[in-house]
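sorry for the late reply, my laptop died twice this morning and i had to redo everyting from scratch. anyway the thing you sent over, i finally got around to it. pasting the sequence first so we're on the same page, its 172 residues, then the predicted structure underneath. double check i copied it right bc i was rushing
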Amino acid sequence: MWREYFGFAGTALAVVNGLIAIAIALLPVRRSVLKLRLGAAALMLGALAVGAAFYSRYHASVQIERQQADRAEIRMRLDNFIWEGRELLGQIRDARRELPARAADEWAQRAETYLGDKLSERMIPRFRKEANEMYGDGDTSVAAPRLGYWRAVRNRIVNLEAIVAEFPDRRP
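ok and here's the structure:
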């Protein structure tokens, strides 16, 4: 918290420095020792103001870099969840394979936990939300007993893709 005040420190020191300059100008000529001391103090305050300004700039750039790294990590993790979900859709669609009910439930639970911890609890209802009819009622190649799991995983993938869209890729 105290680092946030460095942005104001440069301005405050510049104002004090100006007041010292006015005091130096108003002092009589025979007070040269006092003028010299005030001038030295003004130089030190000026150096502190410049240092505070540079530190404030540095701190802001570090904060921006940290936020961008966090956003990139979140995007990568959500992309991994989407990839895992698509793998689960393929397994659910294949009637020759065992229904991955437990894997789908664990995948959804891990994604919900991540969304709640890393983003906010508000993301969990968005993740669980039913997809609209634009995405269809189901794939015709999915067997009826598997259709419920297929829809649940598909809805969550669609919702994850909408959430990932809020974290644009910043690579050049």
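The chain has two domains: 2-63, 69-164.
thats about all i looked at so far, will dig more tmrw
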